[in-house]
Every structure is written in structure tokens, then in C-alpha cells.
Design goal:
Number of helices: 15
Number of strands: 0
Number of domains: 1
Low-confidence stretches: 1-11
Radius of gyration: 20 Å
Strand content: under 5%
Mean pLDDT: 89
């Protein structure tokens, strides 16, 4: 099985396998955090395990943000509309399938405190709840709204050929600060909201790698991103983000050999869909196993992890099949 999975990745030499491994480890930690810490916090007794709270809700999420930011810039040769189209085709179908499965699951098996009405379900298809203080189908989907905001901002910068100009990126931070002070919340969120600083930290390293900025310009952007993040999210978050950045830096330079593990890389192949589907669907499984059958929490966690990962595989495969069919029809 391991040999078979290894062949999946060996055919793509352009990917940094340690970064892929990092994706796999991070989504495993995030899922475990939600099924253990968050579930217990909401429905049972809050566990005395601050370490999983820090790893699951902070460092792992920020690793994902740094990774997304690093790969966010469009290639110089691609047009803005084509870039947006590719991002939509890649991200939206799995998101749409995931929120549909989650919505149906919550309607059939009620999960206290996690109900969602049909209006917010429909609005979620175009991302409106995240920008207008609405309710998400799944609480983890705040990340999608942040990612959409960052894509919108970098697309605009790319359109004006300013996405690799360090002082224009500084202006993005200043714009976010002013919109927040003026209370223009929808526009503030559309351009990335409280997470612009983290994105700029990831972008600064990408620009340095591409020799688009000097080391000093990169440091100016990085420090400015830290200051922005401190003002919006607090000092502790800055510390966690720097830890996440260091982890990413080491992976980018292939210094964390344990993340070359083929199992982590296999999980990474389904990490996007797993992130989208896992939280509420997994908690439904835990809640009903605990309520009706009094199954130990540890076994419920295993069941939730297994079922939601299988759903992630199904969503990813279905998405790929639909895209192939559409491509064949258009030939």
C-alpha cells in the first residue's frame, strides 16, 4: 500500500514533498483538535489539554495560511481573469459539495448549537456569510472566506502589475488598517481582514525567493505583517505565526525529513476537502454515538476521523471526475 501511494507522488517532481507532508500533518492535528478539544468543550467537559488547542486552532491553521500565501501569487504570464477562473474551478466545486453534505447532515441529525437555516446555506454558495456577519454552514469555513479575500486582493494587484512591488503591498496593509478604523467591515473582510498581515509574511518570503525584493525589503514587509497581526489579533498570535513560518521555512528548504513520510503526503492530497467537511459532520457522529450508545470518546474520535476522511476522498474524487467529464465534453 505504501509503495502504491508513493508512486502517486513520485510522478510530480515539481512539488516540495515536505510542504505536502506538512499539509497532511496539519489537517490531522486540526481534525483531532475539533473532535477532541472543541467537541469536549462544547458538549462535555473542557479538557485540560492546552497543547492541542495551541497546535490545532493556532499553529496548524497558520501553517496553512503561510502555505496558501506563499503560493498565492499568480504567474507573471497568466492574465487576471484566467487566474481567478482557475482558482474558482479548483476551490469552489469541493466547497459546494462539502457544504451540501454538511447541510443535509445537520438537517437529518440535529446538532445542538450548530443548526443552519436554508437562507444561510444558499448564501454560503457565494461566500456572503463570511463578509456580512452571517452564519457559516461549518465554523471551519471562515478560512475559505479569508482565502477568497486574499485571492481578490492579489488578483487586483496582479491586474495593475503591482503584485510584486513591495511598497504597494505595504499600502495593502495600510488600507486594511484604515478600513478597520472606519468600520467598513464588508470591504475590510473582502481584502483579507485581520489576516492580511499573515498573508504579507508569506508573500514576502515568496518575493525574496523570486528575487523580486531584497532581503531588507522582505524584512520590512515581514515586520509590517507582524505589526498588523499584533494590532488585529494580538501578541500571542504573532508568536504562533512566527513559529508556523519557521516550520514552513524549514520544510521549503527540505530540513524536516520526517514530513517526507508518504502517509502524510497521501493525507495531504485530500486535505482541502477534509478541512471543508470534517468539523460539523464529525461532531454529529460523535454526538449521536455518545448520546445513544454511550461509546467512549476515544472511539468516537476514531469514527469521526475515519468517516470524514472517507468523505473527503469521495469529494475529491467526485470533483476530479466531474472536471474530467466537462473537459471531455468541451473538446
Amino acid at each position: 500500500m505504501v509503495i502504491a501511494m508513493s508512486k502517486i507522488f513520485d510522478n510530480n517532481p515539481d512539488k516540495n514533498m515536505q510542504i505536502e507532508g506538512l499539509r497532511g500533518v496539519c489537517i490531522i492535528i486540526i481534525a483531532f483538535y475539533h473532535f477532541f478539544y472543541r467537541y469536549s468543550e462544547i458538549y462535555e467537559i473542557q479538557p485540560d489539554a492546552i497543547w492541542i488547542q495551541i497546535l490545532g486552532s493556532q499553529i496548524s491553521v497558520f501553517c496553512f495560511l503561510i502555505i496558501s500565501s506563499f503560493f498565492l501569487l499568480p504567474p507573471k504570464t497568466i492574465g487576471t481573469l484566467e487566474f481567478i477562473k482557475k482558482k474558482l474551478i479548483r476551490l469552489w466545486p469541493q466547497y459546494a459539495i462539502s457544504i451540501s453534505i454538511t447541510f443535509v447532515s445537520l438537517r437529518i441529525w440535529n446538532l445542538p448549537g450548530r443548526e443552519i437555516d436554508f437562507k444561510n446555506f444558499i448564501l454560503s454558495f457565494v461566500g456572503i456569510p463570511g463578509f456580512m456577519n452571517g452564519e457559516y454552514v461549518d465554523g471551519a469555513h471562515w478560512y475559505m472566506m479569508v482565502l477568497c479575500g486574499l485571492i481578490i486582493s492579489t488578483s487586483l494587484l496582479h491586474f495593475f502589475k503591482a503584485d510584486r512591488v513591495w511598497w504597494v503591498i505595504m499600502f495593502w496593509l495600510l488600507m486594511g488598517t484604515q478600513l478597520y478604523r472606519l468600520g467598513i467591515v464588508p470591504l475590510y473582510r473582502i481584502i483579507g481582514g485581520s489576516y492580511i498581515g499573515i498573508c504579507v509574511m508569506g508573500l514576502s518570503y515568496r518575493l525574496l525567493i523570486e528575487s523580486e525584493v531584497s532581503i531588507w525589503e522582505m524584512l520590512v514587509l515581514f515586520v509590517a505583517g507582524c505589526i498588523y497581526t499584533k494590532l488585529r489579533l494580538g501578541t500571542l498570535v504573532v508568536i504562533y505565526v512566527i513559529i508556523a513560518f519557521v516550520i514552513f521555512y524549514l520544510c521549503h528548504n527540505k530540513k524536516v525529513s520526517v514530513l517526507d513520510n508518504v502517509l502524510f503526503r497521501y493525507v495531504a492530497g485530500y486535505s482541502y476537502a477534509w478541512f471543508l467537511i470534517h468539523q460539523n459532520v464529525g461532531m454529529v457522529i460523535e454526538f449521536y454515538l455518545r448520546k445513544h450508545y454511550s461509546i467512549p470518546l476515544q472511539m468516537c474520535i476514531v469514527a469521526a476521523m475515519t468517516v470524514t476522511f472517507c468523505l473527503a476522498v469521495f469529494i475529491t474524487k467526485a470533483d476530479g471526475l466531474i472536471k474530467r467529464e466537462l473537459t471531455n465534453k468541451n473538446k
